[in-house]
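INPUT
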Amino acid sequence: MVDRRFFENYGPFSLAEIAAISGSELDNKANAERIIDGIATLDQANSRQLSFLSNVKYNDQLATSKAGACIIDPKYRNRAPSGMALLLSDNPYKAFALTAAAFHAPSTALPSIAASAVIHPTASIGDNCSIGEHVVIGSKVEIGNDCIIGASSVIQDGVIIGHNCKIASNVSIGFTVMGSDIILHSGVRLGQDGFGFAFDGKTHIKVPQLGRVIIGNNVEIGANSCIDRGSGSDTVIGNDCKIDNLVQIGHNVELGRGCIIVALVGIAGSTKLGDFVVVGGQAGIAGHLTIGSFVQIAAQSGVARDIPAQTIVGGSPALPIKQWHRQNALLSKLLKKSTTND
Amino acid sequence: MVDRRFFENYGPFSLAEIAAISGSELDNKANAERIIDGIATLDQANSRQLSFLSNVKYNDQLATSKAGACIIDPKYRNRAPSGMALLLSDNPYKAFALTAAAFHAPSTALPSIAASAVIHPTASIGDNCSIGEHVVIGSKVEIGNDCIIGASSVIQDGVIIGHNCKIASNVSIGFTVMGSDIILHSGVRLGQDGFGFAFDGKTHIKVPQLGRVIIGNNVEIGANSCIDRGSGSDTVIGNDCKIDNLVQIGHNVELGRGCIIVALVGIAGSTKLGDFVVVGGQAGIAGHLTIGSFVQIAAQSGVARDIPAQTIVGGSPALPIKQWHRQNALLSKLLKKSTTND
Amino acid sequence: MVDRRFFENYGPFSLAEIAAISGSELDNKANAERIIDGIATLDQANSRQLSFLSNVKYNDQLATSKAGACIIDPKYRNRAPSGMALLLSDNPYKAFALTAAAFHAPSTALPSIAASAVIHPTASIGDNCSIGEHVVIGSKVEIGNDCIIGASSVIQDGVIIGHNCKIASNVSIGFTVMGSDIILHSGVRLGQDGFGFAFDGKTHIKVPQLGRVIIGNNVEIGANSCIDRGSGSDTVIGNDCKIDNLVQIGHNVELGRGCIIVALVGIAGSTKLGDFVVVGGQAGIAGHLTIGSFVQIAAQSGVARDIPAQTIVGGSPALPIKQWHRQNALLSKLLKKSTTND
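OUTPUT
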């Protein structure tokens, strides 16, 4: 159950209302006026709560769930216990997301500028912004409307931030131009020097990093992730990219639209990703590569070559995924044979 | 030698006192009144200092060590140079830990609340707490007795912190309920949104993250590590867990009691670990898995399946450790054969 | 083109001046007085801008580049389009670095101490330092001349910092003695407890961490990287080491001179690296190992044994690089054979 200590509850809603909110369809119209107080997981929900099923791993929980209602793919409707009201959706996870957002819209901080924030007189800040305690905003910074900047975050000179951006606490941003509807979680670092040194046989000479970080709209970046600014051209994060925690993105990297980058991934300098690329956790991509659109890279993969669009790869060094699975099966077979022979 | 610039020294102690403190036994009672000024490593200790041997890698250093005394497993007592006083213990590392804590109890900051801290009037703070400069404490936060909150840390609305917790600088905590005797190192991020998006064929729709982070007693979390809050249920860290630096723990993950998670590990969403699981550095565990108690996962392993209790695994994809070693040996053999044939 | 919003431009310079600054030689002296306004990448530069070629991957861009001038290795001079002025250098990357630094010397913050900084009266701060907003400097801290400390950084009691150090925002430093000409990017954590626990069959007992972090001169450490202090001896980072973002360095680790540690690397406790070791991204090195000078460790390698000097290794577990390449080739061959047989 959602803890009211931390979250507002804007319910209850009737199932008819929830069907409208979530774009789903009531399996049985007789349930339209049934009242739902809130949302919960299948194993924790009670008869006044709504749950959802979107991962077959949890099919077993469905049968024993006490949830009053469930958002579900029509093909699983017969597995639900009798008495559970069903909301049918081809995309139950999306329908749940919309419902959850209606029940628990995040509480909006009242627009205000903390007395302890230090804001340069040449900075411009839009309407309805909330600037947290001990925030520092440098000269000529431009911040749009409806932005929230969390406590102790530091926005360096010249940075541009669009509208409706939520920046959490202890974030550092420099040399960055970002769009609107962006979420930066705590500890994000944007725009520091890329890792560039010229070795002259004796020591490493620092190469000035003279590019920027450019971030599109509707981007989310996880806690403690780092995006270095470009060395000459820019580091670019496309619209709708979602980046998890503790990710490293090197200088001059370009991400297309809608890429998903899972935690602890490293993308080395000057590599370009197309649109909707998915990179699994702890995978690494070497520098100066081109990764096509819709490529999927399995967790822990090591990518050292260009990958054509719509390919799925796994392993380190990365192989087409079927080849990687076959290689693992082959190793297993050889191992069994060799053990038998011992 | 321990640098008095940074550490207090509460010694000297006699060897009889150290035996009592450390639960070890003097090999030769004649040494009971010998005075020890401090502690040092085997290769650096002098005749007034105490050292310890707990890793066979350092057996060679024992023979040439100038340490006046050494805590040692009885089975190695004959390897010590004559003249070195010996304290015998079945667990020399533990005995050393207790001794070191007696010599160098960390200096306690005098309880005080910095003038620059911003504390919401509805927050409650226990006795004998030390609240650092520029700390921000939100509404309805509850902090127990004897806690230390380091400079520029941010404790968001509603967070609950038990007694005797030490929170370092630049830490961010939200949506979290934590027990007592907890150490959070600098840059820890607790309670940010988990990584949940529903794809609808066009874009990624954010799934509200409505759970919390629940942390037991006697837990330590390393610098810049991140623990996301649950999406619906909670993310749970059991009593006595020790988490190293730069670790990523996803939403809804549950760790049992006494787990050890080494640096740069990633644990994906909804995976459950039993008690006393050990996860080596840079290992990754996929989501929605169950890892039994006392499982050990070697460094850099990639775990994509459930693991039964008391199993040791290695490799990516992870195999039972013996099988992984045999596979590496087999590859080496095949390689030799193929090279000979070339 | 370099964005004047973020960077000063100290140009223009003539090609003769640039040849002198960069230590390169004009291919055609007739170009000596030609004026260059700034620098840009090969694909973006115009006829008044200078570019460089140091990676054969970009040879194709050379032929179509509109750059007015280019720093280039003499052996590629014939590939340049006619009309492009050439500056010849055996180390074009270094020559470019020197040129870029002349065009765009970073703007120097005027020396000042922010009113919101909290500085202990026993701390000493050198001449011409810039101390940012909300910085905290503890008792007996010593900071040399010409240092910059970024906003919300926390320097704990007793820390020593040399001359001309640039510390970015939201950095935490304790138990550390560092030299001069050091760059710490935002979110760096220095000197927290190492990860040391003694298990007694029931729980994990914390082992006091009583060493320091010692950092030489001319070191750079990337955003959100962590260096734990020693447990008894010190953690040591040698002169000229360059450490990327999100790197974990455990207690008692020693790095020699000029090591390069790429992002997301983990080095476990008590391991010693020689001089000029290069560790690729996401590689891991186990504890208590000795890695010789000039060793190169490929990205994602897992090192579990000592490595003799001047060896190149790859793979997990790491092998000599040729052996690793052969092993990958062998697997590919076996796979093809087995697939044919299916």
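end of record. Chain A touches chain C through 59 residues (CB under 8 Å).
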